[in-house]
Amino acid sequence: MPYRTRRLDEARRRWRAQLRQAGQDLRAARHVAAATQVAVAAVVGVSQSEVSRRELGQSQGVRFEDLAMHAAAVGMRLSLSLWPVGGQLRDAAQARYISRLVARIGRAWNVILEASMPKAGDLRAIDVVLRSGQLRIAVEVITRLADLQAQVRAAQLKARDYGADRLVIVVAGTHANRRAMDAARETLRASFDLDAQRVLADLAHGRDPGRDAFILLS
C-alpha cells in the first residue's frame, strides 16, 4: 500500500506540473493571437480571473474538456496521451499465478513483491524480485498474451532499468497463451530459455538459471 500512495502522490505532482506548463502555453498562444484575458473568457464562457488562474497553472479543479476548449479559443489543440508505467493493480488471476510461483520456488530466495524502480519518479514496478546474495532476478507475470513483442520489450526494459541480472517472464498456462507461445517459439528461443521445468528446478534450488527465461505456469 505505501507504494500505491507514492504512485498517486507522484501522479498529482505530475498533473500540477502539466497544468503549469499548459498555462504557460495558453498564455503564449493568447499573446500570439493578440487577445486579452477578457476576450478569451468571453469565448470560453468563464471569468477573466479563471483565465488568469489557468494561465498560472493554479486552476486545480479544471476539467480536461475545459482546457481543450480554452486551447481551441487561442488557436491550440490539447492532446491526451497515456503511457503504461507498470505496477498496475493486479487482477485476481495475476495474484494467483504469483502465489503459485512463490509457493514453488520462494523458500530458496528473498522474495520482494512489486519492487519499485530505483530511479526517483519512475512509477513502474517489477512484479516479483528474487534475491540471493548479489543475484537479482526480475519476474514479470503475464496472464494474457495480447501483444507478445510489446509485452516482452516492456518487461526487458523494466528488468534493465531495475538492474536485474536475469529476467523471467511467467505466463499463465491457458490454451490461448500456449498457442501464442507456440507461434513465437522460434523467435523467443534466441533470447530466452524456454525449458520451463529446468528453469523452475533451478529456481527451486536457489540457482541462477543462467539466462533469461519464459515459464508457462499451470
What is this structure, in a nutshell?
The chain is α/β, with parallel strands linked by helices. It is 50% helix and 16% strand.
**How would you sum up the global shape?**
elongated
Helix content: 40-55%
**Annotation field: number of helices:** 8
Computed over alpha carbons, the radius of gyration is 24 Å
Level-2 CATH architecture of the largest domain:
3-Layer(aba) Sandwich
> Class by helix and strand content?
alpha/beta
Order of helices and strands: HHHHHEEEHEHHE
End-to-end C-alpha gap: 28 Å
Biggest sheet features: 5 strands, mixed
According to CATH, the fold-level topology of the largest domain is Trna Endonuclease, Chain: A, domain 1
* Overall number of domains: 2
Topology:
Blueprint: H1 2-32, H2 37-44, H3 48-55, H4 64-73, H5 92-105, E1 110-116, E2 125-132, E3 135-142, H6 148-162, E4 166-172, H7 175-189, H8 196-204, E5 213-217
Parallel strand pairs: 3-4, 4-5
Antiparallel strand pairs: 1-2, 2-3
